[in-house]
Amino acid sequence: MTDDAYEFEYAIDESAMERGCDLWFALAPGYVEVPFRNLFADPESPEGARVVEAVESLLELVPQEQRAGFLEQLAEARALTSEMRREGVVSFAIGAHEGEDGTMLESVVMLARREIPWTPPKLAAARAATARKNALPVSVADLPCGPGAFTESLVELPAVADSRQRSLYEATAYLPFPDGLKLAVLTLTTTAVGAREHYRDVHRAMAEMVSFDNPLPEEFKAQIPESEVEASVRAVFG
User: Fold this and answer.
1) Helices in 80-214 by DSSP H: which ranges?
2) What is the DSSP secondary structure assignment for residue 113, as one 8-state letter?
3) Confidence band (pLDDT; 50, 70, 90) for 3?
4) Cβ neighbourhood burial of 146 (10 Å; 0-12, 13-18, 19+)
5) Of 152, 140, 133, which Cα lies nearest the Cα of 196?
6) What is the pLDDT of residues 138-148, one digit of tens each?
7) Quick one: residue 158, left, alpha or beta (phi over 0 = left, psi -120 to 50 = alpha)?
8) What angle do CA 11, 112, 229 make, to 5 degrees?
9) Which class for 129: exposed (0-12), middle (13-18), buried (19 or more C-beta within 10 A)?
10) If pLDDT is split at 50, 70 and 90, which confidence band does 227 have?
């Protein structure tokens, strides 16, 4: 089949329609975002219901015999919620993809935002990439959102962590905000070290989708609610 035979559709998350949103990106197919901020919410609440929906969507992607292990990973992710908040993580997604041999490959994608001292964006990207210990700076590139720097690393885990999986592949993109005061960090981590070339391409494609300007079509932008200040001004001046 040719590339023209495939049709892709994008689902717009409700967070992309918030007035104060200043960072947008798209997840690749096979990833489901986990609303980690709501992992401790009451299942009967709207937030808790979204967690249940996300978990059910994930389970549909995973073969029955692998679901127990997948749920264990989700439980570990729940325990990391507080640390993720401290690190500025704003999006957390789990991916499930079928490998060439039919096995299920699992990966995690995280998007974080960090405050930094004012730095020219290109320098901020390069500085962040070279400051990362045990990571190999791969490239600095001009992306649709501006300059960005990429690193890769293989992380060796202690035997006590998991006797079956001793290595993790991690790809990271450092993407400075145009104001030079914030940094978006997009990280993909997987135990499927042998598939790192595939995941490198997936990660790069997602980094190229990051935007600091609202990329939504005008008909969707028109649906974004007014801020309280805008509503007050309109009420006074019409």
Assistant:
1) 81-86, 121-131, 196-207
2) E
3) very low
4) middle
5) 152
6) 788 999 999 99
7) beta
8) 70
9) buried
10) low
